Amino acid sequence: MQISGGHIYDFGKWHEYTFEFEDSSLVIIQGENEAGKSTLKAFLIYILFGMRSREIESYRPRTGGTPGGRLNLRFPDGEVVVERILDQHNGQAVCYVGSEQKDQQWLENKLDGMDASIFRQVFTLDTEALVSLQLTDKEQLGKVLLDAGQTGSADVHKLEKKLQQELQQLFRPQGRKPKINAMLHAFSEQERLVQELTDREAAYLPDKEKLQEILEKTDELQKRKAELRAQISVQKQVLQAIPWQKKEAFAKEQLKQLASVETFPSDGIAQQQQIQQQLQPLEAQFHVHTKESASIHKDLVSAEDQLLKDELYKELYQLAAKTDWTAYMKRTQLLEEERYKLQNQLASAHVSYPYPDEFAWNSYIAEATGEWRLLQEKMMILDAESERIQQSIAAKRQEIDKVDHLQDRIDQSLISEKEYRELHTKKDIKRAEKDISKVAFSPIGLLLVFAVLLSGIGILTANWLLAGSGILLLVGAVMHWRFGHQPNNQPGNSSYASEKLAEQQELRVRWRQLEEQRHPLEVQLMELQQSYSMQIKNREKLEQETAMHIEKFSFLTDVPLVHWEKAVQEWKTKEQLAGMLHKVNQEYEERQLHYTSTIDRLRDILNLPMDLPSAKTIEQAEYVIETQQKLRHTKEQLLDRQQDIQQHIQKLDKQLKPLQEQKANLFVNAGAKDDKQFVYLAEQYRIKTQLMEELEHYQLQIRAILPDQHFSAEEMEHKQDKVEQVIASLETEQEFVEEELDKHRQRAATLQVKLADLESDTTASAAYHELQGQKQVLTTAGRKWAVRKLAYDMLYQTKRSFQEERFPRVLSEASSLFSKVADQYKGLVLTETGSLVVKDRYSRNIAVEQLSRGTIEQLYLCLRLALSRHLGVQQSFPLLIDDAFSHTDHERRERFLPILQAAADVQQIILFTWEQPTFEWTRQSKLLHLEKTQKTGLW
Amino acid sequence: MPPKLTFIHAADLHLDSQMEGLTAAHPAMKSRLQDSTFQSLKQLVQCAITNKVDFVLLAGDIFDSNRQSLKALVALREACKELQKYSIDVYMQYGNHDFTGKKPMMKYPNNVHIFQSEKVDTFFYEKNGEPAAAIHGFSYTTRHIRSRKALEYETKGDGIYQIGMLHASLGTGSAADIYAPFSLDELKQAGFDYWALGHIHKREVLSDQPPIVYSGNIQGRHRKESGEKGCYLVELEGQSCAMTFLPLQDIRFETVDVEVKEGTALYDLEQDVLNSCMNWEDAFGEAVLHIIFHGPAHLLMRWNQEERLEELLEIVNEQQQSLGSQLILAGFSVQATLDMKEELLLERNDFTAALYTTTYSANDMTHSLEELMGNRQFRKIKQSYSEEELQEMLEEAKQLLLQTLLEVE
């Protein structure tokens, strides 16, 4: 079969492109990269075999058309046009043989069942194959070449390698890392774990049985414990009852001894108490009254003894009690004091004049006293008057003397009348000259004049003293004039005269005034002197009167009138004092007498010694009186009280009697003689009652503790020991049982926990499931390995048989081809060990590894060609070589030409290349040049 | 005439059983699933109480293995205790999975009656103080019982119901008859009123008269145990027998198909699956799904090899969980269709054709797998591959090779 041409409707970059190979069996399609060579190659394959949808997608034109086209095929029996359009006939090929239309199946048959994959393997050769050849290890080279001869492409080899790799990764008999090995290891580990856990679980049932046993034993022990507890409780009751029984026996014994109180009435004590209750206060009262009565009686007797006889008491009372001794004594004392006082007064009474014996105060004297007083006053007034007048006279005379004295002095100062007159005249002249020069008349002026004069005289007379005095006087006058009298320019000389005149005038006035004063004074003096003489006359009259009185009362003779009254008064006082003293003395004495007699009587009455001081006696008497009074009063009271008591006693006696009778009856009933015995019996009775109660209580207790049993006293002693022993042994056993029980419970608990743990523990189950899971995974992995191993072995076996059956023919074909192109080698041989060797011209075997790269490539090409021819034994298929030689140098490339030329004799060869072919190449081939930009066109 | 009896017939509880094929499931979902047998048991107890049954029959394989995990034992004990509260008796026998080579591990309450030995034994059930039924059965004490135990069953007592509990499989006459093989005739001849069978997980009524019934298991454990799982509520009254199926499963196992069309992108597929989940949830409720992807090999094989489908399931699971859905996409398988024509391939003489036509004998396969199967540890997990499995794997291997070679571009 050959491709003679075709037309692309749309395919990749190709659009409506027609190409023509004519009848050429060697077609060279030249174009640069991207010129569309590969697309064209794909188009050829697509039309012949179709394509997977995924693959065809990449050739869907970008312009939106549908991939499709037709090829003109030339078979030995005629031409066929194959058309395939993606969306027509379900993408299947339609063939046209003449006017006949055939389907895809027809085409497949026509192509001897060739499919795309095998076509690709065998009938396409590309750069990659040769390049990979270059890269192949030398050791692998023979194998690769052999594969190339058997299957074409390296896919089988790749597959083999891949399978081997997968197998290695899955499992290795001695490995640890591969998946299955690792899983098997894990599986055995898991198996061990499962076994461990299973073993642990295996203990479950035995443990469960053990637990059951323990629980049964625990129940048993529990029962035994309960039994023991019951027994102990019974024994403890017995033990508890024993003391009660002992008490009971003792109480009975005591009761026996109390038989004597049997007659004692049951309410004896109550009766006795009732009676006693009534009786006791009454008796007490009776007793008290009796006692009181006796005491009163005793007091009465004693009082009688002490009492004075009535007469004596009365006298004593009269003497002592009726006398106010204190007042008496006070009075006496007062009198005494008065006496002393009066005596003293008398002694001290002052009399200015001796008391005249003839004096006795009387009415005459009293009457005269009034006259005396008047007389005395008159005399005194007269004396006073005369004194005053005498004084006034003296004063007047003094005044007159004074005036006289003053006049005398003025007289001394007064100049003579003549002089005065002169002065008076001078004064009148000078008053006329007064305004002209006052200076001249001024004393200073005069002084100056005098001073100048004096000094002049002195100088003249050479009397230096005089001159000096004159100068000094001068200086002084100047100074005075200058400083002292400067404003007053009155000259001294003139003023002096006037002053003198004025003075003289004044003095004369004064003198006349004094003269005028003296005159009245002298008149007054005369008047006074007249009064004085009058008084003298009056005095004489008075003195006459006085003489008359003296005549009448002679005792006044030596007494001046002035003291008459006084003296009489003093005498009178003395006279009175003497009288009073006398009276006092009299009274005092009387009293003394009365006192002494009374005291004496008192002593007598009271049988006191006579020499006892009176005060004491009085005291005693008063005491006796008081005592007696009291005694008498007490006696009366006692008598009253005694009477009352007697009445009470009678009343009580009436009440007491029936009660005492009752009591006596009670005692008789109780068999008691007296209270003491009754009390004793009552106590005994009480003890008995108590014992009875206790006994009842004991019996009750015993019945409560032990309803049935009862022991005798001897038994009890014996029993107690025994019971205690029994209890001890029972308790020991109980302890033992409890310990056992604890142990069993503990073991049961431990087991229960263990069992519960086991029951709740799902580890074993989980581990088992894990194991099963691993098993499944392992099974799957094992299967995977098995499938790959089978595939691998099958592949190997097929290869072997293929090698044996079909390869020899391919080999001889290749050998013949190879010898043609490589003249130094005779051919190819497959050794017995299945390796490919080359025979040289001396028939020596040369291992392919030893060949040069170029020779190996030639050999490869020969093998591929041979294979393609062999497979196309019924008919040849075009061989598509896509840039397979482009990587080689020119020389090497040239060595391919003869091979291709030789091959082209048998099958069409379509060579895709980017290189411009040499003439050698183009000479025998059809060249199709593809422009890079070319999209359509006819070549 | 004995009084009417109401009881529950359940079998193959497989408590604490491993759920298979959950490789893609979320860990939380896994634990939820592993708890599902217990949940189903609780459901069973609830049904018994609600329906006021007289007793419950558990016809073997109550536990997943003779290991009898303590978790399972405790769960069963608690269930029995709960039933005891309602005076519901429990009759139990052990099957080939939970055979009691050793002593039983649990002490059950008094309402539980266990057939302890391989000798057929009888318990009498009294209702209202009157004997009402004779319940016959035996337990496995070894993994296999080859004898025809069905022949040992005999009626006991007059005028009472005769109920047989039998954990066994129908005899085939082959060496595979290792689970107390029986024939229907043998059972029918015993003259029993009801045969409560166990062992087969798919429920099936083998006979109506007398009723010979497999109740199936109460909770599916892998994708092959799909659909509703549960027990039968049986009412015996005289000669008549009414059976009602009560679903008990906590979660269903289902297999669903997803078509992958040529040219589908992975995210499209993801969306498809997500959309389908809504329909599946409507159809199954809470379910564990196994997805079978159907589609062109060049897509599916590649995605599978690149582990893209696993990722897809994980993503969908996560999204489902966040949506609160109870669907679990537990796993998947791929059914890829190779884009090749066998007859054309056979005409060819290239390597791919040779690979396609190559044959690989069982011997070759054994030889190939020797490496792995020679590993003692692995043999514990997988003793051997069955012929069927080997063929399946071989086919897969071939597909793997062809797919790779055919996908050359």
UniProtKB/TrEMBL annotation, chain A:
SUPFAM superfamilies: P-loop containing nucleoside triphosphate hydrolases. It holds the Pfam family AAA_27. Keywords: Coiled coil, Membrane, Transmembrane, Transmembrane helix. The keyword Membrane applies. Residues 211-238, 713-761 form a coiled coil. Residues 1-198 form the YhaN AAA domain. This is Uncharacterized protein YhaN. It comes from Terribacillus saccharophilus.
TrEMBL record, chain B:
Residues 6-202 form the Calcineurin-like phosphoesterase domain. Pfam families: Metallophos (PF00149). The keyword Nuclease applies. It comes from the Bacteria. The keyword Hydrolase applies. Keywords: Exonuclease, Hydrolase, Nuclease. GO terms for molecular function: exonuclease activity. This is DNA repair exonuclease SbcCD nuclease subunit.
